[in-house]
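Thread: flavin mononucleotide complex, take 2
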Amino acid sequence: MSITAKLKARRTYKVIGDLKAPICSASIDKSSVDLLLTASANAPFHCACDRVHKTELSSPVPWRVHKLQANDCNKLKDFLIESGDVTKVPNMLSAAEYLFQVTWLPDEDTIINRGAGNDEQAFSGTLRNMEHIAAASAFIQSLLLAGEEQGVMTYWSSGGALKSAEVFEYLKIPLNQLLLGAIFFFPKEIEHAQIKQGAMKDARGSVEEWSKWCDLS
Ligand SMILES: Cc1cc2nc3c(=O)[nH]c(=O)nc-3n(C[C@H](O)[C@H](O)[C@H](O)COP(=O)(O)O)c2cc1C
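Output below.
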């Protein structure tokens, strides 16, 4: 399939699994996952992350990925249920063969209120932060496409409870990172699950509705 065809075919699939029947195997092995991540990390990036972020992992890219395979998704599911989560996130963890907690890395002096549960004011909107988010988003889109090519269903979630300080602490993700996407990989074939598509999938409009030629004549 051409890249253009892949771009057109990519779709969100949210798989609401059975809490009592978590999946226990994966269609993609861990080393192949790292190959997909490596390929996706060819996404463009402009500014190196603040050096404070290089203490956990050393790369200058403005994103980090904390990876969970199916059995750890299941442990995280149990953690959320014990914490009183009644959303569909535990069901999706039950159906996931991988979860990638993809964070972006705000410049240290722009972080506000982290850990205080105030998501609306987590960081200052600086030009550098905008570019960090843009680069991390390009990485995520690449990861979605790479996953689709391997035959899994993918879902970019804002995270719900997965972006909470409690989950970050449970997964040992530094609190100065911010979740940009909880990226789910679900197996193509799954029993006892409900599959939902993205609410906005047909809402884009035509190219004329979101682009125009600049006429300088
Ligand atoms: C930054 C971002 C956050 C998203 N968060 C959610 C989410 O929390 N819940 C959800 O149902 N879909 C979420 N989505 C997926 C969108 O719903 C989906 O992309 C949209 O409906 C279009 O569908 P499509 O991806 O199949 O074209 C998110 C997408 C992006 C880019």
